[in-house]
Task: structure prediction
Amino acid sequence: MAIESMDTRDEETPLVVDISESETPKNRTRDVHILSCAFLLIFLAYGAAQNLETTVNAEGNLGTVSLGILYVSFAFFSLFASLVVRVLGSKNAVVLGTTGYWLYIAANLKPTWYTMVPVSVYLGFAASIIWVGEGTYLTSIARSHATDTNLHEGTVIGNFNGEFWAMFALHQFVGNLITLAVLQNGAEGSTSNTTVLFIVFLCSMTLGTILMCFLRKIDGKEEKVSADSSVSFCSAVVSRLKSVITPLLDTRMLLIIPLIAFSGLQQAFVWAEYTKYVVNPILGEAGVGGAMAVYGAFDAICSLAAGRLTSGLRSITFIVCGGAFFQAVIFLWLLLKYSATSGVLGIVYPLLMAALLGIGDGVLNTQLSALLALLFQHDTEGAFAQLKVWQSSAIAVVFFLSPAVTMQTMVVIMLAAIFVSLISFLFLTLKVEKAFS
Result:
């Protein structure tokens, strides 16, 4: 079989390739639009479902534990994701990755330990290849577009990431508005309304998968490798593991990892803690959809703005510090001053928190992708694999800790993570600027 053997030259071919040499210049913005819209359709369903997991599937902590298993699986399979993407090609990888999300939503139609746990494990695999595929594809077309149009590579990478993450962030806004519209018309926790909601989500995911089929393949070298090649599959796995381990020998990656881990922690905090302990007690399950719609709207706006403002390491530094400040304000508020209130303020406070948390998430999503693309141009697949390994591991930690610790303890962990990640990141910027000065 093709997957059992590979040509040595194919194995050494970078996952992110310079496509400008193999085809006439094309306007790659079309592919960015398609990729962004397809991810929006898929993740508006998954994101809204994930926000509800800890409340809808609260019995026996099924929702929390299944999400923890999902992200442990995600972290593990991220080690091998670049190999799978290399074999399939980045376009085929993102299409295959959608199947895990589709099955996860389907499992929520009958949520039991026997349906949720196996599907969560498979979704971890699917998520690993869809995200490494996305990062590879987007970086490749950005570099090609910069070459074809004689634009600054860092600016194009920032613009493409800004558009993608802005559209992606809209999944929280659109998906949670759908949740709000469906659930507010029925009784709290109504099984029939929840079933209708997940059926709508399945339809959205199907449309997104179809749209992904219209992406142009970036290069023939990313197609399946020849069956006549001589290197064994095991050798290829070892090679890919080396590509994941090698960045850990780079001081720059070690200094970025705390920021990557924090990006996962803050996302999981919103999904597991904020929705359960801040929003749900005051606004109910339907209110979770409304609050997360606000979160998604500000996430999207900030992603687009941050992407447009990104031009290099200096701009990334200022933007990251600004986003971290907004999130630190919320965590300090929750730790020192916040208490649930009734009336208008009881509604305004959770929504204000959602807005500021969304700003922080939008900053981290765009700037981490741009930072890795700029600093690891010769090992992009390994860098993006590191992103997903550490991000998903941090998310899993929150989901497994959530049933065992109080929200106040989790807030203290978040504040400590902000402090450590910012110090490490600022040291990185000084180190890199000194190297080029």
Observations:
- Residues 42 and 205 are 4 Å apart (CA to CA).
- The mean pLDDT is 81.
